[in-house]
Amino acid sequence: MTAFDPAKTALLLVDMQNDFLHPDGAYARGGAKADAIAALPDRLAPVAAAMRGAGGWVISTHFTLVPGKGGEPMIGAHLKKLRPFLGPGDFAPGSVGHELIDQLKPADVQIEKVAYSAFYMSRLDFVLQRAGIDTLIVGGIVTNGGVASTVRDAHVREYGTTVLSDGCAAFSAAGHDAAIADMSSIVKTVTCAEVAATLGA
């Protein structure tokens, strides 16, 4: 596969947060778990290590529920219907649940996001441009949600984008496979092992 210029490349970890992944996080408490998602931190850790070793960037995005008056989170109707268990303190800025999961720390830059795409109403594009980053390697959750939306927005902005086919996961294998197949029409898809080996070389 094509080599990456580490100085201009970032591993973009989409929403690999404690509230999604930790056994004590909001999703685990609400019973929203999947084995494929739980396996991601260990699968992505060697890629993050290889990126750091090569001198590249590690950027994490953090899904955020902005607390309103009384601490009640501002939750859209779609998400509220999908995840009715979410409440005060979940995905709140500064909370343990909002943080990047320990296996993947540290990130060079952390980006709060309030929608599926990490580019929507965030500082991600600003950071990438200021850092001179033109290439993204994307992994995280969920494949058919935050990952796919972020990847499509990156494509529109003409970032060279590679998706880690086994470094993403969804709540169903069918949803994951369909999203990977769909994204393959606009970006490269490779495995975590392939990227880690390329960066290591």
Name its key features:
201 residues, 9 helices, alpha/beta, Rossmann fold
Summarize the entry for a quick read.
By secondary structure, the chain is an alpha/beta fold.
Describe the structure.
- With 201 residues, the protein is an alpha/beta fold.
- It has a single domain, classed as Isochorismatase-like (Rossmann fold).
- It has helices at residues 18-21, 26-29, 35-38, 40-54, 77-82, 124-131, 143-156, 173-183, 192-200, and strands at residues 9-14, 57-63, 109-113, 135-141, 160-169, 188-190.
- It has a six-stranded parallel sheet, sandwiched between helices.
- The chain is globular, with a radius of gyration of 16 Å.
- The termini are close together.
- In CATH, the homologous superfamily goes by the name Isochorismatase-like
Low-confidence stretches: none
Query: In what order do the strands lie side by side in the largest sheet?
Result: 3-2-1-4-5-6
CATH topology description: Rossmann fold
The number of helical runs is: 9
Largest β sheet strand count, sense and barrel closure: 6 strands, parallel
Termini separation: 12 Å
The average pLDDT value, as a whole number, equals: 96
Radius of gyration: 16 Å
Tell me the count of domains. Answer: 1
How much helicity do the residues have? Answer: 25-40%
Order of helices and strands: EHHHHEHEHEHEHEH
Strand fraction:
15-25%
Please count the beta strands (DSSP E, at least 2 residues each): 6
Shape: globular
Structural class: alpha/beta
For the record, what CATH class applies?
A: Alpha Beta
